[in-house]
Amino acid sequence: MQNQRRRLRGLTIIIWFMTALTATVNGCASVGTSSSRSSSDGYSRRDERQYIGSFSEVLAVAVSRRYVFSATPSGVGVYDRLFNTWSAPFTRENGLTDARISLMVGDPVEDAVWIGVPGAVVMYRPQVEQVQRTIIPGIPDYIAFDKGGTGDAYVRAGRQWTRVSRTGMAFGVSNPPAASTLVLPKTLTDLYAQFPALRSSQSLLFRNQQGDRALRSFAISSGASSPERASEVWLGTNGDGLYKVDPTFQQATPLRFGPIESGIGALALASDGVWSAGLGESQVRGGLSFTSNDLQRWRWVDGTISAPLLGVRVHAMSLRAQRAWLATDRGVVRVRLDAGEDVATWTTLDGMLDDRVYAISARGEGAWAGTARGLVWVNDSGASRDRKTRGLGTRVLDGTTIYALQQIGDTLWMGTSGGVVAMPADGALLRPAGVDPALRRPIRALAWSDTVLLAATDDAVLQLSPKGGVEPSRIVALDMRQVGTVTRLAMDDRTIWLAGSNGVLIMARNTGATRLLRIPTDLPGPALDVVASRDWLWIATPFGLVRLRRASDGGLP
Prior knowledge:
mainly beta, five-stranded antiparallel sheet, 7% helix
């Protein structure tokens, strides 16, 4: 019996060792508690597929030897202070499974961060993308580190202390460790005691940074100091993101990352990136956000005192000549994208047909706005604007809901509640030839490329020829049932994208092959808008912005 027990113990040790070896090979640092992101979607690097929510509301800040970590409701931002660049954030997609973070501390020994969540402490190493999760009782409220050679973490949860090794092993501690034996992280209170000017001048440090025309000030919510630089402090705010602060010279540098709010309602391509407009669901900030293609440059525009964008739900956006035109639930909004960031609005008080604007098409110094009760021209030229009309001009299709607009040459195509309607430069209203009854049904989305115009109804996508002469045809491969309620249609010379409440259906134009991006495996939520540049596909969702690398054929790997 004793020999059988020894053999069983030996077999258990072998199994345990093989499990540990397998976990280490897969990028896991501890047995049974660690995980790393794996993907079978064809992307070899995580930066080729990114989900990014808002990182404006910072709950905690931690600093390691190389990285600065900012905890937000959307995950943990990772800033590389060696190269002054943002790394891919630590989110639910790659291992942060808890929405609530009780505390966060930078590791003094290696480039890692320790995160306290209910019932566990998570250690994340961004350089190798390792996630180590150790189960402990309670909610962690304090983390310190052993000054000895091990550098293990002491975690306090309630009145109980737990020692957590760097391999994820947990050991109960009967008595709290002496403070002299620990490396104690500085709290925000410690930073205020060391630099009293931070408390008294924070309104000056964080006011009107990077074009915040509303002149709002944001309170400091968290902070940490660099371990090797006494005059380098990193502060988080309750709505203005992360700041690098030199408290000696009273200088603050904002480090924007992520859109101004997580919910994205509309997108528009820029020459070197994309603009996104919010859903108006955030209670902290709202408005427009720009990001460069490499996700390193971010810009936030949240309106002015007289025309704030907080709480405004944007349905569509169109860019032209340094102007962003927004179709919103509060009328038409025009935002100048130059340094002035002037904002103008048009509502029913100014003569709009309806405050519910679903589509917008910028042209010249104005824009066509499709509302719930018709189409209206909005002129933004101060030289020709009538004070009585405030630039509101031609009105057509009174009482008809306009869902989509597409400008092709000098003709404006409209997707309406009564079907497809075209309006040439002379202002005549035309309907395309054809006997397909779908052309008389509500058209939810339009898209155009080359000589092809696509129109989406609730149950079909039709291909039309804007110049006429060709009967409309249905694209059978674009099965509307796979995407649910249609929200947007987009296309270029290689690919067609059909976005909806259940995902995005992608079709290669040359082969007809399709691929579906599903919720929640591929997308965090419904696809509200989609735009594509040569190298990237951008998708707007209620939970953030999705950026996907396009393959050489225009599709996805």
